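Please decode residue identities from the backbone states below.
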């Protein structure tokens, strides 16, 4: 991997880091937010799902137009809006204004993830793509090890507003990195027809069963994953006996482990095949999902072990999934497809989060009920994703890489 490629991946990872911390920090803040605003599990799930819902809508709308522009320009505009929305979250004084700020951040954040993946897919050929995506997705690990624990520390020592202000401030610096170090990214425009039809992306997908199956795979993965994620922290505090000040350990240990596992999974997927590696990690992930959602009061080492393997296995199934999804479309339509794929992903996240909030209820003693029901549903959905992924075939495995200049 050349120095220019490494620098590009570093900036993409920085975008992902701030984007992921902004999204992830909301979930471990659940106990504080529910106490601060005096809200129930359904109202908390609305805070989480409002971001995903607005991001899903903006991702869908962006799919009609993003392939008309230099990807760098799209990222600069979207990232600026995301930073403004995140800073607004840090300044929000009420529950209603926090929902509005999360919605604003989501409107712009919904475009970012898809563009990062489109840039990586454009710049790296199929045979090296999982490794490159593994590098970018280590941002998730660093966010877990550094971002979330630091955010929780700021929330505990100052207030829940502080993490969002910190991420927004960091985002200003990252915007400068994008402007300075990301090259012009318009090679995909050369393959387009002179007259661009904004409906072409959607009509192409609707006529292509392979692309529809890739979207179905993304939706299934997110439904299974995000029905579990938002309530891990509230459940561990209310049912397992975790103190709020201990929550950072879950993210620190899990993120630390995935720093090492994510690049290994990427290389393994490139060598052994994306689908076989996906199957292995999808099956392995079912065990920690069951253990987390049915966990009684337990000692700290056991909880950290279970949550650690949860991070490794769920992250391991996401890396080949992203490589599979990006391979079903040619570069001239990739930005639009990945935006629509991101939209499906985020809308599924929103539906899963809000649906779980309707199932999980709070008992008079403060404990959360029916989280195990959510776990059983997640296991069934994730098992089904194995059969869907088998039907998705790459179409650009023979496409040459695009030089970074």
């Amino acid at each position: 991997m050349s120095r220019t490629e490494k620098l590009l991946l570093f900036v993409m990872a920085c975008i992902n880091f701030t984007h992921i911390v902004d999204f992830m920090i909301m979930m471990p803040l659940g106990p504080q937010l529910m106490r601060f605003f005096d809200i129930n599990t359904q109202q908390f799930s609305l805070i989480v799902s409002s971001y995903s819902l607005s991001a899903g809508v903006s991702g869908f709308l962006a799919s009609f137009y993003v392939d008309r522009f230099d990807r760098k320009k799209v990222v600069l505009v979207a990232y600026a809006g995301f930073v403004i929305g995140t800073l607004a979250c840090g300044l929000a004084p009420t529950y209603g204004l926090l929902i509005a700020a999360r919605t604003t951040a989501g409107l712009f954040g919904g475009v970012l993830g898809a563009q990062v993946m489109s840039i990586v897919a454009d710049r790296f050929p199929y045979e090296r793509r999982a490794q490159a995506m593994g590098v970018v997705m280590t941002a998730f690990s660093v966010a877990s090890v550094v971002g979330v624990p630091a955010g929780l520390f700021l929330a505990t020592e100052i207030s829940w507003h502080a993490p969002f202000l910190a991420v927004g401030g960091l985002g200003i610096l990252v915007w400068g990195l994008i402007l300075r170090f990301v090259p012009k990214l318009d090679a995909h425009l050369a393959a387009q027809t002179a007259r661009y039809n904004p409906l072409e992306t959607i009509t192409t997908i609707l006529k292509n069963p392979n692309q529809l199956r890739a979207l179905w795979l993304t939706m299934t993965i997110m439904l299974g994953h995000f029905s579990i994620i938002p309530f891990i922290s509230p459940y561990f505090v209310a049912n397992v006996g975790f103190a709020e000040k201990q929550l950072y350990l879950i993210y620190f240990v899990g993120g630390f482990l995935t720093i090492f596992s994510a690049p290994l999974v990427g290389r393994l997927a490139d060598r052994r095949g994306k689908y076989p590696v996906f199957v292995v990690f999808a099956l392995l992930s079912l065990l920690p999902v069951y253990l987390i959602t049915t966990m009684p009061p337990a000692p700290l080492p056991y909880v950290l072990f279970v949550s650690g393997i949860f991070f490794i296995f769920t992250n391991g199934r996401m890396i080949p999934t992203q490589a599979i999804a990006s391979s079903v479309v040619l570069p001239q339509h990739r930005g639009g497809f990945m935006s629509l794929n991101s939209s499906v992903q985020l809308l599924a996240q929103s539906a899963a989060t809000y649906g779980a909030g309707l199932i999980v209820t709070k008992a008079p003693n403060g404990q959360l009920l029916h989280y195990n029901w959510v776990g059983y549903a997640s296991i069934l959905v994730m098992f089904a994703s194995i059969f869907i992924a088998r039907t998705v075939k790459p179409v650009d495995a023979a496409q040459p890489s695009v030089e970074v200049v």
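Observation: The longest strand covers residues 361-362.
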